[in-house]
Specification:
Layout (H helix, E strand, L loop, with lengths): L1 E7 L3 H12 L4 E4 L7 H5 L6 E4 L7 E2 L7 H6 L2 H10 L4 E5 L2 E4 L4 H13 L3 E3 L4 E7 L2 E6 L2 E10 L14 H8 L4 E7 L3 E2 L2 H9 L4 E8 L2 E9 L3 E3 L1 H7 L8 E4 L6 H11 L5 H6 L4 H10 L14 H12 L1 E3 L3 E2 L7 E6 L10 E2 L2 E6 L7 E2 L4 H16 L1
Helix pairs in contact: 1-5, 1-13, 9-12
The structure holds dihydroflavine-adenine dinucleotide (FDA).
Length: about 400
């Protein structure tokens, strides 16, 4: 079997790239070891796929080389993908500012990509294992479970390590190393935190409670909801900060992101001196959480009116509310992570064509590269943009 382009991985980036290469007149084959294309798309966004973010900028991505993503993102923008889904009659909603989700199901996005591949004449082989990839003359040769395949260009779109049960493997990293490329250390990103000891028990008791917070770590701050779980902390704010968190370091949670608790408590003591702290907390937090706070810090006599609180006591409470320092035990890891931080070092890759600089027959796109987006549709936008740039250049 001989193809101009063989794409490894029928995920977001691979399908997009294959369709573009097909439209450019190339004979294209996609190979995936999974039994279905786009499995991660199907499970994304709670089954509704947050397929882009209208506010995408390079600043929404982590990479050793923050400039690498600029060119592709500039050339293929969120409006282009919106135009594509419009053309296929997909209905969508803007759930949060800029975050577009399918109105019905993520299946719609797979349908769009699958149809585009069909129209572009792309062949797809699922349930296919790749055992070897080597250089062969001017091209590449793949040994697979369906035989030997020769390709002018091999595009590696095999994704990251998250959710191994969905077909994630380290294949792309191994291939990169085989061809002498550096793979930057990988770790789970956009992943819930686990807690240990009494914080784990406390969190488990509050499981299901969600509240808006601002969380900070390593110079980053995110203002989004936090969710208590049986194992620790999740919700958009925690997923976001997990991407910059290093094991062993604390995170700081501001439970009253828009309020200076010290000022408010002093003000309340002046205006409503007979009020109890529990009432003040109850006005700001879900009932279960307000109650839990009083249990966590037993120094607070629940019957004591605010008038009897000293400045020091109020400041202590303000610190607990505005600067809650917590050391996560770890994260839930690859089992639930949405993305992989790190990956193939972009230094060796062209940001225009995605080819390996001294081996243009080999290309890497999507999440396998050391480019990772924040939460909110940015990761798919990267998959589309890198896929289009590479596919058009194949
Ligand atoms: P992707 O993982 O999509 O595809 C890789 C493909 O390669 C897979 O089909 C896999 O089977 C195949 N493969 C792997 N190893 C192989 C091998 N050895 N041989 C052959 N094939 C192989 N992002 C976002 O922007 N909005 C969202 O709503 C979400 N939601 C979300 C939820 C959950 C639960 C997860 C896990 C992730 C998200 N994401 C997301 C992230 C997003 O899914 C991710 O960034 C993209 O799917 C990456 O696209 P890729 O094509 O690079 O990899």
């Amino acid at each position: 079997m001989v193809y101009d382009v063989v794409v490894i991985g029928a995920g977001a980036a691979g399908l997009m790239c294959a369709a573009q290469a097909g439209y450019a007149g190339r004979r294209v084959l996609i190979i995936d070891h999974a039994n279905k294309a786009g499995k991660k798309i199907l499970m994304s966004g709670g089954g509704r796929c947050n397929f882009t973010n209208l506010g995408t900028t390079p600043q929404h991505f982590y990479s050793e080389n923050p400039y690498f993503c600029i060119s592709a993102l500039k050339r293929y923008r969120p409006e282009h993908f919106v135009e594509l889904v419009d053309r296929h009659g997909v209905e969508y909603v803007e759930k949060a500012p800029g975050q577009l989700f399918c109105a019905t199901s993520a299946k719609e996005i797979v349908r769009v990509l699958w149809t585009e591949c069909e129209w572009a004449g792309v062949e797809v082989k699922l349930n296919t294992q790749i055992t070897k990839v080597v250089r062969q003359g001017e091209g590449m040769r793949l040994s697979t479970s369906i035989g030997v395949i020769d390709a002018g260009v091999v595009v590696v779109a095999s994704g990251g390590l998250s959710i191994p049960t969905m077909g994630a493997t380290g294949f792309g990293y191994e291939l990169a190393r085989q061809f002498g490329l550096e793979v930057l250390p990988t770790r789970a990103g956009l992943v819930p935190f686990t807690l240990s000891d009494f914080w784990k028990d406390r969190s488990a008791k509050l499981s299901g409670v969600s509240l808006p917070v601002a969380v900070s770590c390593a110079g980053r701050r995110f203002v989004e909801p936090m969710l208590f779980t049986h194992r620790g902390l999740s919700g958009p704010s925690m997923l976001q900060i997990s991407s910059v968190w290093q094991p062993g370091s604390p995170i700081e949670i501001d439970l009253l992101a828009n309020e200076n608790a010290a000022d408010s408590l002093r003000e309340a003591r002046k205006i409503t001196p007979k009020r109890q702290l529990s009432t003040w907390l109850g006005e700001r937090f879900p009932k279960r959480f307000a109650q839990a706070l009083l249990e966590w810090y037993p120094d607070s006599n629940q019957l004591k009116p605010l008038a009897q609180y000293s400045n020091d006591e109020l400041d202590q409470w303000a610190g607990r509310l505005n600067q809650w320092q917590l050391k996560p035990a770890g994260t839930e890891g690859w089992r639930t992570a949405e993305v992989t931080m790190g990956g193939v070092n972009t230094d060796a890759i062209s940001s225009k064509t995605f080819e390996v600089k001294d081996l243009p027959q080999l290309r890497f796109i999507g999440e396998v590269l050391d480019v990772t987006g924040e939460l909110g549709g940015y990761n798919f936008q990267w998959a589309w943009a890198s896929g289009v740039a590479c596919g058009q250049a194949c």
